[in-house]
Write a structure and sequence with these properties.
Length: 980
Amino acid sequence: MLLNCHSYYSFKYGTLSVEELLTEASSGGHNSIALTDINNTAVSLDFVRQAKEHNIRPIVGADIRNGVQQQFVAIAKNTHGFSEINEFLNLHKHNNLQFKPQAPDYFQNTFIIYPFQSQLRELEDYEYIGITPQDLRNLPFTPWKKHLDKLVIQQTATFRNKRDYNIHRLLRAIDKNTLLSKLSKEEQASFNDQYKSHDKLLSIYENYPPIIANTQKLLDTCNMEFTFKTNKNKKVFTNSKEEDFQYLKAQAYKGLKYRYDKVSDKVLVRLEKELSVIKELDFCAYFLINWDLVQYALSKGYYHVGRGSGANSLTAYLLRITNVDPVELDLYFERFINTHRSSPPDFDIDFSWTDRDDVTRYLFDKYGWDHTALLGSFITFNHKSAFREIGKVFGLPEEEITRLQKNPNPDLADEYGKWVIRYSAYISNFPSHPSIHSSGILISEEPISNYSATELLPKGFPSTQFDMYIAEDIGLHKFDILSQRGLGKIKDTLNIIKENHGIDIDINNTKVFMEDPKVKSLLKKGQAIGCFYIESPAMRMLLTKLKAEDYKRLVAASSIIRPGVAQSGMMREYIIRFQNPNKRTEAQNALPALYEILEETYGVMVYQEDVIKVAHYFAGLTLDEADILRRGMSWKFKQRNEFGKVRNKFFTNCKNKGYPDEVVQDIWRQIESFANYAFAKGHSASYAVESFQALYLKAYYPLEYMVATLNNGGGFYSPQLYLHDAVMHGATIEVPCINQSFWENTIKGNTIFLGFYLLRDLEKEMVRTLLNERGLNGSYLHLRDFVKRVPISLEQLSILIRIGAFRFTGIGKKELLWDAHFLLGHNKKTKPQRTLFQAEVKEFQLPALWQHRLEDAFDEMELLGLSIRSPFELVRDELPSSLKACHLPQLMGKLIRIVGYLIHRKPTRTSNGKTMFFGTWIDIDGHWLDTVHFPPAAQMYPFRGPGCYVIEGIVAEEYGFWSIEVTKMERMPNSSLESN
């Protein structure tokens, strides 16, 4: 009898999750209800999936509204009707059209229910009028009293009780960005829009049997049958499944020649095994689509990195989807794919941020816009956002909201504060609004509208209204197309090298890079500034401690640096066991069965596949159960029943095997603590391959690589540090020049000219005009020549003068500024005109103007956000110490005093919850300096922003990594522009 039910996916309107909705309906005696969220079908199929568990026959549709004004309710008779509703929503959403009060006449498999207030007219067979309990009293006085055959029960169901209603009103106020007290009645539902029991509705309408009969007939007519978990991706790439397999096999064998000089029997055996499983699981088309998009990228000169569990596949390696050789690394095949697995493996394919959209468009164009969509997601209210939004609608000031966020204690709050705390908890994890998955693309055999309506994104691509978890339940498995700036750096570096040196480098020849002594040296010393993810201070520390000069050690480092492994203490244990063979022996003797499984990583779980190995070989779970455990790394999946069952079996099996309880608990702790963040080994290997590519370019073309790094948005550090690194490699840095610079940074010989883009307030259109004019008519002769040729405002011209863009004239900035003011006067912008003879403009002889040695530096910091000068030149006082980082090994355990320029600080917490820091600095020679700030020193001598500091502390060393345990620290004051 409930034909108009809302979940909380009626965003900022509904109040119940799908499970709560079904529980309420089941407890109310309903055996069939219709989920009709407002203008979306995001969780319609999830509702269908869950309904069976509650003995509810599911019906789906959509509540069609303009704002909160209902136009009609559309209910699908069957899956065809569901598609009709989705296509109807797409038409309006994609074209930003208002919904009309009357449904279109092309619906063939959909019921339409209009509000009772609709005017009397002749209705089609599929059209009805919905009458609410409140409308019944008016029925005798309306024309509809003679048309009971077209009336159905319409009890809109949005909430269960007063608390839900309060939540609804708060959500409406959040949606309208207004105070709760100012929320209009028209913007909220009636309190009567509640979930009523089946018997209650029958009693309300007992005097109108025809209405009850119509409603029941409508319910009985609807049949939403849907098969979940079966593969609904595009089924064939060629013309048939057999042809797909033969084509895939041919391409794989073709790849053998590209990848191997000599093909071993081990490679051939593995390849045949993989191809057999891929065919058995019907994944040939999935592989070929990934192969095809990579072929397109290669044809366009786009660089890519293939990672994810698919990197454990030899087939993927041969198809050039990844650059990771799984045979060389002995990658665990069952993490990639196994016969118990229903979903295909993950291929996360990274492209340069400049190329990703084109690859995405290629997929849409090739496989059809009706069959292709980006994967959606949901943004939910978290602790912070819930407090902020609820606080705002109650009118609390920002500082009060922040205080409640930090200390949500009702005993310390006033009446409004108590409401904020209570209702923030209620809406925590509610969906706030739809969003987009970071990388997922769906390519389906049937039109996407069979599964969901879509949202049109600003770039013109449609996205599903459901998320990846629903997609997986449906049987739609995503293709992951991502972007990263690291590949942009590599691509641009190669182009710069080609342009400046005439050299072509095969960047995919990674095996040569991995054996290069210069590359190994950089890696071992952690000298990897700008090189993808291995440039961070934490990674530099880890690489130093592991003496990581080879591929396999870098692969391990890539995973153990992840938050879960590090926080569980296993990163430190890995380092200890790597450095100390006795510790390995102890671990092996303590639990031989576990150590044998994890011998490569010294008995420590490092990779995702380690979870599968331990679950399968140590705990005796089947491979599909082990994969469920691995997937349980996702908090959302962890809530599924199947995860709980597998977890229980893990402990039961371990107990039956006779393992000590404390050992099993410790192993489970490791799984839980690191699994949500750990990489698959192939994933880590893919990152390591890209790191070697970047390291090779950094080793032999450091200046070109730094220019490319800056032009691609940098990385972990600020542009200031990347310029510093270039200087350490012999570069001369020049601020923007109107005759030498371009929009981006450029390099000529060893000189790097900064690009105009770094000037924060410079207009891009003006720069485009400047460059076009220079290209057409040659370099600018002087300021007046520039003003005659380029339309520019005084403000924009002043920026160029102050940064030194006219320094080639030999005239000082202040003199040029005087001239600029004279030339432009009060004009908003110059208007250059071409004339045969240029009129002479009067020139003035100015007196010598005072200048300070640091004027340029301060102008650079203001206009560029950085200075090309050494930061140590900018301090006011003389440096109190000449000690350098290279001196630390001779001063082990001694109290020292040193000056450092702050690069980065990382906070962390001790075991007792106190805050401490790790600091990263450069010394007066520009080399790395690392500090540890334990809680007492961190509290007494805090960081006070960027700048140079005098640091006192004890020199310490651990496995070749030197640092200073700080006892005292003080920031040095900067110089000011005072007259000498």
